[in-house]
Amino acid sequence: MDLFFALVLGLLFGGYLVLDGFDIGSGMLVRPLGRTEWERRAMITAFGPFLLANEVWLVATGGVLFGAFPLLEKEMLGELRALVWPLLVVWMVRDVAVWSRSRLPGVRWRRWWDVVLAVSSTVFAAGWGMLIANLLVRFGGGGADFPVYGWFSLLWAVTMVAVFAGHGAVFLTTRLPQVLAAAVALTARRVLPAGAGLLTVATVVTVVAGVLPQRTGALVPAALAGLVASAAPLAARALLDKGRSGPALAMTAGAVVGPLLVVATTGADSVRTAAADMASLSALGGITAVVLPVVMIGQVYLWWVFRHRVDDRSVVFF
């Protein structure tokens, strides 16, 4: 049962990073790429329908973490509270920016919230990178040598900013009107190689710096997961060159979830030993069996409804 919930936790957290990852990446690009109000409005309309549904995955992740892995939750909110709490605040600021920017018609008002959205999305992406770095450190047993906000965390922060930016840019190429999507695709082609390079560097540093357990069973799978993820942005760029933005989005999703696979291969044993007792897991299993399919079916349905590009008839959510 503990293995089942470890897989569910990984599925939900990975799903969140992939799905809200394109919201984060798109939010980062709204101000830099949106030269006019129409362009910025189109970019927000592109990811707006998915925003709240994507965040459900993070809420579900928290529910499984609290219910099935109370010891792990205690460690994260204890040792990593200096990172987790600011991350939650930035999440709220990002959402406030999305909700607020169109509440008034003033140009200054909207420009201000566009800046807040871009900055908070960038900090949010960096925060997830720092969390990944600190999970690697703690599961690897090197907590004393790598502070929460040390150089290793900053490396992964910069890496995930680039990865999320590429993911968001590719997503926008699938949703924006063709004339605007072509311009965003140019940015994606520039950002994706940077994400690939940074993922490679971060993976190599993680391996050689002694962060991971120095045993073949953990070291090799973690290194392979990181290096395979590093190739995904380059594959996405090649697909974009062929005009295949949908498969390119699948590749950038792999780049986003790759670092989580590195964490999973490093900390699988630690996660399972932090599980709740069997009675608690059995009770939670019944709830999970109902809620998880509903979340997944709802997500598929949402993508089907909003599968077309943004146009003048598109519903504006924010």
3D architecture notes:
The protein is mostly helical. Helices cover 83% and strands 0% of the residues. The chain has 11 helices and no strands. It is globular, with a radius of gyration of 19 Å. The protein starts with a helix and ends in a 13-residue tail after the last helix.
Summed up:
The chain has 318 residues and is mainly alpha-helical. Helix content is 83%, strand content 0%.
Give structural attributes.
318 residues; mainly alpha; 11 helices; 0% strand; globular
Question: Strands, helices and their partners?
Answer:
Blueprint: H1 2-33, H2 37-47, H3 51-68, H4 70-78, H5 81-100, H6 107-140, H7 151-175, H8 178-208, H9 216-241, H10 245-273, H11 278-305
Order of helices and strands: HHHHHHHHHHH
The total of beta strands comes to: 0
Tally of contiguous helical segments: 11
Q: How far from one another are the termini?
A: 41 Å
Alpha-carbon Rg, integer: 19 Å
Instruction: Give a quick account of the main beta sheet: strands, pairing sense, barrel closure.
Output: none
